[in-house]
Amino acid sequence: MAMVEPRSTKYRVLASHLGLLCFIALILFPLLMVISISFRSGNFATGSLLPETPSLEHWSLALGIPYTDAAGNVTQPPFPVLLWLWNSIKVAVISSVLILALSTTAAYAFARMRFAGKGFVLKSMLIFQMFPPVLSLVALYALFDEIGNHVSWLGLNTHGAVIVASLGGMALHIWTIKGYFDSIDRSLEEAAIVDGATTWQAFRYILLPLSVPILMVVFILAFIMTIMEYPMASILLVDTDKLTLAVGAQQYLYEQNYLWGDFAAAAVLSGLPITLIFLYCQKWIVGGLTAGGVKG
Amino acid sequence: MSRNLLKWGVLAAVVGMALYLIFALYAQREFVFAMLFLVLTASAVFVFVNRRMYAHRYIYPAVAGMAVFVVFPLLYTVGIGFTNYSASNLLSFERVQENLLGRSYQSESARYPYELYQTGEGYVMVLEGQGRSLRSAPFQLDGETTVGVEPGVAPAGEPLQIRDIIQQRDALKSLSLTLEDGRELTMASLRAFAAIQPLYEKSGNDTLTNTRTGEVYFPNNDAGFYETAEGERLVPGWTVNTGWDNYLKVITDPSISGPFVQIFIWTLLFSVGTVVFTLVLGLLLANLLQWDQIRAKGFYRTMLILPYAVPAFISILVFKGLFNQNFGEINLVLENLFGMRPDWFSDPAMARTMILIVNTWLGYPYMMLLCMGLLQAIPRDLYEASAMDGAGPINNLMNITFPLILKPLAPLLIASFAFNFNNFVLIALLTGGAPDIIGASTPAGTTDLLVSYTYRIAFQDSGQNFGLAAAIATVIFLVVGALSLINLKLSKVKV
To answer: CB-based contact (8 Å) between A165 and chain B?
Structure first.
């Protein structure tokens, strides 16, 4: 296929490359800045993009190691960043596994079974998902406060509460998985059932192995959504050593206690793994995006 | 058979636990929550016992999760919107009465300094009262105890140190000592006991009488406060239904309606602005990356996706630092290049500009990814044909690309609009709503979106007006509900 090409193409290609590179430089500026700041000494100093006096002060503090400067003063790490990272990962992994398990089984029923109220339930789930949970925070707070009086691991200031609360956001995942199940020919399972398999066996041994790609996508999406969740965690968690990264990171930048350098190191340290996971998985995520999550 | 037994056993255990929870909630007069769990348990039993509900077993956990964590909070919030639930009206009527009846005052000026001794038979309290020494019988410090004191001398040994007394403080607080003439002494401070009398006395019809001044307070069930005939109120009050009061307040009180309208308009501008900017940028970049002549597409794509890959809560805070008026790097660069130092956080227009810049940075990769996906679906022959006719890239964009992707894009644009309409995290982490609107009686900022405004009314400052916040939340629910219905119609979802 030979595209018809006007003579000006060469210049336009060049201009596009230049434009793209300039744009990327502009876009990357904040990210490069943060990496640079994390190696600067002091919390207020402004300087050039390449630090003039590189120091590992902030990195040592971010990793939880007390830092001794040249004059012999010891600075203690302001916040337990690694603990926060661990909390975030713990909460995100457990809730993603639960979300995946529950939304897969639900999607199976929605895709393969006939039952009363199916359309109604599916549609209303989609509508309810649009409502911002921030607005029901008062109610959620009261709910967990009340549950906590009777079930201690589900009360306020527990990770259990954050995990359980994140299960409310399952509708999008159910829709995504259901869409994938719909695209798989159901004659395979019917054949298995004719051969004597139960409905559960047909689901477990025929349909699930065929759906691994979409299950991966949903797991990654759920993982990223919960790790980035801020409002709910900010209300439910109180103690410093219980916080997740999204809530904790904010504590670096209070007006009265502005730890800009320490924040930069903590941000790079904790943001890097999530960014790399995302970039690694982006080719799968792109497929799942049109079905679900919105950001920005 | 044994499997059946196990099944029923597990079911019975779960139901038993659920019933315990329901009764506990009911006993605490938390009727709404008791009802929620009752409905939940009943439907669970119905679904899991009934053979005909087999399919529903698969969807039950998901639907129940939605019901408890999405639908119930929604209804509960709407309900709160019709009450005066707030920091000053937090408790139920019974608890308010309990609280007020629990208040006390020191009825006489005499205070009795004490020493506490630990003997073999238990603790012994020795009071120094009005020129003589009083002594109690040995007692244990566990829970509510009443002990008589009579003249006597201190036992042998050293009294307890103050730090031991601090350790026993809670037990000492519930201790009451009876004098020979029947007066009761309770702990007045760490070092002394005194005669304490209740401040309020309850008479019939739930009225309270102040035992010192003799003033009578009547419960006012419209306002949710104890009031005198002159309208003097006792705090705390209790929660009562106030009907449409909160909604009327939003409309009629100028110190609330003014900021509300301002914030509503800004919320609309912000959401539309974000959608337009991210779409224009995303579509442009997607078009460039789609172009056959461009090499190194993989590199460009990865670089351009980066803002989307970095966790939002980190990049928003990064921008908060970079835009800092005094030591932010952006102002440093601007000053070096153009000699200016904008007030990004104290000037409303600059703060709004900053928010739009940051949100465009955060959001364009998503639009780019969507557009890239949708551009794939446009047949190449169309461009070939238009090139034959001598059309340029702008003609192609306006006459072929845009009309063709607009239709599949529309529902996604509405979803993006709805998301940004409620983009709480951005505002909370970047500006926190600052700078404040002058003359507002509720916490309201010029960069607040409706959703962060609601959050601040509910959780920030001394106000804590949950009722008002819930009323505003209900208004937002209606707007968002309408949007999602339109979206559902536009995207023609098939079940």
So the answer is: yes
Nearest chain A Cα distance for residue B240, angstroms: 17
> Chain B residue with minimal CA distance to A258?
B321
CA dihedral B452, B456, B460, B464 (to 10 degrees): -150
> Following CA atoms B390, B393, B395, B398 in sequence, which dihedral angle do they give, to the nearest 10 degrees?
160
In angstroms, rounded to a whole number, what is the distance separating the alpha carbons of residues B73 and A141? 9
For residue B405, how many other CB atoms are within 10 A of its CB?
19
Torsion of CA B312, A263, A238, A76, to 10 degrees: 160
Cα–Cα dist B24/B159, whole Å: 44
Residue A134 has pLDDT above 70, yes or no: yes
DSSP for residue A203: I
Q: Which two tokens stand for residue A68?
A: 């001794």
Q: Is the peptide bond before B393 cis (omega within 30 degrees of 0)?
A: no
B412:A31 CB<8 A: no
Mean pLDDT confidence for B286-291 = 87
B111: Cα separation from own chain's centroid = 45
Which pTM was predicted? 0.81
Closest CA to B194 of B181, B208, B183, B209: B183
Site of tokens 């307040």: B249
Identity of the residue numbered B492? K
Tens of pLDDT, residues A226-252: 988 898 898 899 899 999 999 998 888
Three-class secondary structure assignment of B49-104:
HCHHHHHHHHHHHHHHHHHHHHHHHHHHHHHHCCECCECCECECHHHHHHHHHCCE
Contact A102 B65 (CB under 8 A): yes
* Cα-based angle A174, A176, A181 (whole degrees, multiple of 5): 90
Q: Determine which helix (DSSP H) or strand (DSSP E) holds A253, and give its type and residue range.
A: strand A253-254
Chain segment A48-91, per-residue pLDDT in tens: 556 667 788 888 888 888 888 777 788 888 889 999 999 999 99
Q: Quote the CA–CA distance of B241 and B248 in Å, as a whole number.
A: 14
* SS3 (DSSP) at A246: helix
Could you give the CA distance from residue A132 to residue B451 in angstroms, rounded to a whole number? Answer: 8
Specify whether the CB–CB gap between B277 and B270 falls below 8 A: no
User: pLDDT of B141-172, one tens digit each?
Assistant: 776 778 888 887 777 778 888 888 888 777 78
Give me the residue from B372, B384, B488 closest to A3, CB to CB: B384
- Residue B157 CB-half CA count within 13 A: 14
Nearest CA in chain B to A37: B329
Neighbours of B309 (CB within 10 A): 21
**What's the length of chain A?**
296
The pLDDT tens digits for B200-226 are 888 877 888 887 788 888 888 888 888
Residue with tokens 């949007």: B483
What is the b/e burial string over B199-212, where b = at least 16 CB atoms within 10 angstroms of the residue's CB?
Answer: bbeeeeeeebebee
Residue A108: list chain B partners with CB under 8 A. 58
Q: What is the model's pLDDT at position B57?
A: 86
pLDDT in tens, B436-445: 888 888 888 9
Residue B393, token pair as written in the block: 């890239």
- Whether residue A119 and residue B313 make contact (CB cut-off 8 A), yes or no, is no
